Amino acid sequence: DMHSNSTVLDAALLMDPHLPSRFSSSGSSSSNGRQLLEMQAESWAMYQQQGRYAVIKNPSMADGHSSTGQVAIHSVLLPYSYKILLFGRNLPTSGPKSQPEPGVGGNVSTVYDVATGTYVVTPNYETLFCAGHTVMSDGNVVAAGGDMGYGYSWMREGRDVVRIFYPSSMKWETLPGVKLSEYRWYPTQVNLPDDRVIIVSGFLDDPARQTGKPAPSIDVFDYKSKRWACSS
Fold first, then answer.
1. What are phi and psi of 212, to 5 degrees?
2. Are 203 and 212 in contact (CB under 8 A)?
3. Which whole number is the average pLDDT over 6-16?
4. 73 contact partners, CB below 8 Å, separation of at least 6
5. Most C-beta atoms within 10 A of its C-beta, which of 19, 23, 35, 144?
6. Strands (DSSP E) along the chain, which ranges?
7. What count of Cα atoms within 13 Å lies in the side-chain half-sphere of residue 134?
8. Sheet holding 118-121: strands in order across?
9. Is 161 helix (H, G, I), strand (E, B) or coil?
10. Which of 119, 118, 117 is nearest to 109 (CA)?
């Protein structure tokens, strides 16, 4: 039955697994919203078998609505944690969707904590939207390429940039003097066993060239030395 997951589980639990109280099948509540084991045996078995979607409310919001703080176009699960690095593009400069979430301002990167429902702003101003990204052996994230950042005075060119995100400090570093051989809008990145990163393709997205033409070159970034191993 396609609908068994929604009809067997309690409606309150489907809406929010982080409720301050636990709702039983009879409608009564108690003090611990995370103790799902006291659900009826059939519901728990179905949950284990099928899984489910649920809204995680953000307690730092005045109305408690769910928020990652970001238009989450890109997401990277940070190793050994319940945290997700999220980044995307700037909000529109006007209109009903132009207002950022509290504390975000013009930033396009946050780290969202699934366990708490809250986020931390992680600023980076070399336009991250459309970057490639991979997680290295030490848990840091390499993100190459991106967008041109037009329309916003605080955003800089990102299509030929290489950046590293450090989960330990929750900060980005843009590597000085390390530029891709071509502009790359949505490149593909693949890690090699020795922590080199192959970076290929992506659109050139260059007004001086044909729009939508794939970048023909290959860049190999040596993560350990923070230098290029080769480009061709």
1. 85, 5
2. yes
3. 43
4. 87, 88, 89, 129
5. 144
6. 22-23, 29-30, 74-77, 83-87, 109-113, 118-121, 132-135, 141-144, 161-166, 171-179, 188-191, 196-200, 218-222, 227-231
7. 19
8. 74-77, 83-87, 109-113, 118-121
9. strand
10. 119
Q: How far is CA 48 from the centre of its chain?
A: 26
Q: What is the pLDDT of residue 204?
A: 80
Inter-residue contact 163 to 143 (CB < 8 Å): yes
pLDDT at 206: 60
**Residue 25 and residue 10 in contact, taking contact as beta carbons nearer than 8 Å:** yes
C-alpha triplet 148, 153, 159: angle, nearest 5°: 15
Q: Helices (DSSP H) in 21-176: which residue ranges?
A: 41-50
Question: Who contacts 27 (Cβ-Cβ below 8 Å, separation ≥6)?
Answer: none
Query: Residue 65 corresponds to which amino acid?
Result: H
* Geometric angle at alpha carbon 176, from 92 and 104, rounded to 5°: 30
Three-state DSSP state, 104: coil
The pair of structure tokens assigned to 5 is 């997951």
Rounded Cα–Cα distance for residues 196 and 220 (Å) = 7
Residue 135 tokens read as: 């997680």
Summarised one tens digit per residue, pLDDT across range 36-79 is: 445 556 666 666 676 667 788 899 888 888 999 888 899 999 99
Give CA separation, 67 vs 100, 104, 119, in Å. Answer: 11, 11, 8
The pTM (predicted TM-score) of the whole model is 0.75
